[in-house]
Write a structure and sequence with these properties.
Elements: H1 2-8, E1 18-22, H2 30-35, E2 43-49, E3 54-59, H3 62-72, E4 78-79, E5 82-83, E6 85-88, H4 102-126, E7 137-143, H5 151-158, E8 164-172, E9 175-182, H6 185-195, E10 199-201, E11 204-211, E12 226-228, E13 289-293, H7 302-309, E14 315-320, E15 328-332, H8 335-345, E16 349-350, E17 353-354, E18 356-359, E19 378-380, E20 406-410, H9 418-426, E21 432-437, E22 445-449, H10 452-462, E23 466-468, E24 471-472, E25 474-477
Antiparallel strand pairs: 1-3, 1-6, 2-3, 4-5, 7-9, 7-11, 8-9, 8-12, 10-11, 13-15, 13-18, 14-15, 14-19, 16-17, 20-22, 20-25, 21-22, 23-24
Helix pairs in contact: 7-10
Length: 482
């Protein structure tokens, strides 16, 4: 546009090893700016003018700067999915000795250059032609998967290094993996250097990144598992239009803690659906036992709490208080699942009341002594076949979504009709707004009810419902709507 032409000008400065960068995105770090230069050679100095959204980058040689300019002139580089404009500076070198932020820039330079030096040998060996950028396609393995890592999370993290064209996610050998294609091999190179070995969230979800042997990814569907960001006309797997291209602000992540392990490239807290700390919590954060209060004692049962909280983890024990039946203790398999449950269920309306969930002071739910009558208020579900997350790396970890008015149904016998499914939900008191079988798989469907509260209650009443032909209905919250 006009701004770009004005910046580039008709009289470009003569080549210099110092490059002038304009329109740096707010919040961009020194390391991110340096990453634009490292594929072309060593970066020797940096001056960030954050107030003006500008920077000066000094390369080790004029030849490296010329190579970088020749590359970026037809292909505008991006930081944080925004274009950055580059031209030669009138300066021959940068003198930053007396500047206040010099130490920060030098620390970033030292860190990036040391990582680059360690990575060059490995990267060269991976390239078929011995080059530094063997492929624009990365293979990403996520280890220690405590929290769900969705396609949107990957898009947001990897987009900071350039335009992501395509992503395919899958589970192989009980490991969550992804293939991710950039517009340019250098974007892939920079992402690998910066992210390999990093954890998305503190202490878990560690990324292991290699270059793929594939030159191009073929994406057939735009859905939660695969996306071609250059083809918005592709159908989703059930024959309906694809989701809109993701933007950072559009996704609430189903994770209750702020990711800090990736530092400047981590997903920002604004994208979170909940926080780890719960206002007013008197219990112990990191505990696996939850205190659930403000329940409707006329409607709630231990089984109902088991089914509802079981959407976000494996419930081992439930105890409804004998003298205070609007309160209950729910023991999850571990603290991570307890945090997920708090994140998604605290504040939801259930049977006419707003449910409160927080950490309990108790470390375990005590079972009644043998012969003691507990009026059926304490139940042990440790060995229940209905646990969703027993198997490590289960696909259910990828399908954890906040409560919504749309439910995902599966394990439906092919003989069951649309009207029969609608009537099943209507008989629980729900208002059925829409229903649709998946075109590719009639064992699955989406149903939209009158409210989130109706969906919560229908899930409690109908999950594992016997539909005949040895089929028990499976229900979870859907990310999409109909």
């Amino acid at each position: 546009g006009i701004e770009k032409k004005k910046f580039k000008g008709d009289r470009s400065p003569r080549p210099s090893r110092v490059l002038h960068l304009c329109r740096i995105p707010r919040g961009a770090t020194e390391a991110e700016v340096i990453s634009l230069g490292i594929p072309f050679g060593k970066v020797t100095n940096l001056l960030m003018l954050k107030g003006k959204r500008q920077a000066f980058l000094e390369m080790a040689s004029e030849e490296a700067a010329v190579t970088m300019m020749n590359y970026y002139t037809p292909t505008t580089p991006q930081l944080r999915s925004r274009p950055v404009y580059i031209q030669y500076s009138n300066h021959r070198e940068l003198k930053t000795d007396n500047l206040p932020n010099r130490s920060r820039s030098q620390a970033a330079l030292q860190a990036v250059n040391s990582v680059q030096a360690r990575s060059l040998t490995t990267t060269s060996a991976l390239g078929a032609d011995g080059g530094l950028c063997p492929s624009s396609v990365l293979r990403v393995i996520v280890e220690n998967l405590f929290y769900p890592v969705t396609l949107e999370v990957l898009f947001e993290i990897f987009s900071k290094f350039g335009s992501v064209l395509k992503i395919i996610t899958f589970t192989k050998n009980d490991q969550f993996q992804a293939l991710l294609q950039y517009a340019d091999p250098m974007n892939a190179y920079n992402a690998k250097i910066a992210l390999d070995g990093q954890s998305i969230y503190t202490g878990c979800c560690t990324l292991h990144i290699d270059f793929s042997k594939l030159a191009n990814l073929k994406v057939r569907y735009n859905n939660d598992k695969s996306r071609d960001f250059t083809r918005h006309d592709l159908p989703s797997s059930d024959g309906h239009p694809a989701l809109e291209p993701p933007t950072a602000a559009a996704f609430g992540l189903p994770v209750p803690v702020v990711p800090v392990a990736l530092g400047s490239v981590a997903v920002p807290p604004s994208g979170m659906s909940g926080q780890m700390t719960v206002t007013g919590a008197t219990g112990i954060p990191g505990n696996s036992v939850l205190l659930v209060s403000n329940l409707n004692p006329e409607a709630i049962t231990p089984h109902g709490l088991f089914i509802l909280f079981g959407v976000y983890g494996d419930v081992h024990r439930v105890k409804i208080m004998f003298k205070k039946k609007e309160s209950a203790l729910v023991q999850m398999a571990d603290a991570t699942q307890a945090q997920l449950a708090i994140s998604h269920l605290n504040g939801q309306r259930l049977y006419g009341r707003v449910l409160h969930a927080t950490f309990s002071k108790h470390r375990t739910v005590q079972l009644p002594r043998e012969g003691e009558d507990n009026h059926g208020l304490t139940k042990d579900y440790s060995h229940s076949p209905l646990h969703r997350f027993k198997k490590p790396g289960s696909k259910n970890f990828q399908n954890i979504f906040p409560p919504s008015d749309t439910l995902h149904l599966s394990n439906i016998p092919t003989s069951v009709t649309v009207d029969e499914m609608k009537n099943l939900f209507a008989n629980t008191g729900s208002t059925v707004k829409a229903f649709r079988f998946f075109q590719k798989d009639y064992k699955m469907a989406l149903i939209r009810l009158g409210s989130v509260e109706e969906a919560l209650q229908a899930l409690i009443e109908l999950h594992n419902h016997d539909l005949g032909e040895k089929h028990h209905l499976r229900i979870s919250f859907s990310k999409s709507t109909i």
